[in-house]
Amino acid sequence: MKPIQKIGFGGGCHWCTEAVFQMLKGVSVVEQGWIASEGEAQEFSEAVIVTYNAEEISLEILIEIHLYTHKSTSQHSMREKYRSAVYYFNAEDSEPIKETIRSLQSKFNNEIITQTLAFKNFKASHEAIKNYYLKNPQKPFCETYINPKLKLLIQQFTSVTIIEALTHIK
Asked: pTM of the entire structure?
């Protein structure tokens, strides 16, 4: 296995998803935008592409963080825009992703609805909204929606969180 890997995550607002993965050790790049798969998932949905070093952070931990930091058990009315998914770039990653999600199900009260989908296409966000949290941590949106997700990282995933980047969070 190559140490540098790519994986896509979709679930909630890409500002939130981007901020979560930017705060993790072993993650080198987070690309914010929209991802499309195939079949019923061929329409673009808000998501990020995460480039990470598998020797520093495991795919299993990334998936677990993803499931905890968006509504991975909620089939709400905005699912077309915010598809709950893990997008794989290599077909051999599909089954390990599915197995990880199955193994994490016992930690959740409701059924995880997160799909495992093939990555097909990506449209990057325009420059003005990339790195939204890093540019705007004091904005009400960030304080209301992103900070609680980052607090969860500090509390439950301390060993893989860049704590010094989050000292402003109370």
From this structure: 0.94
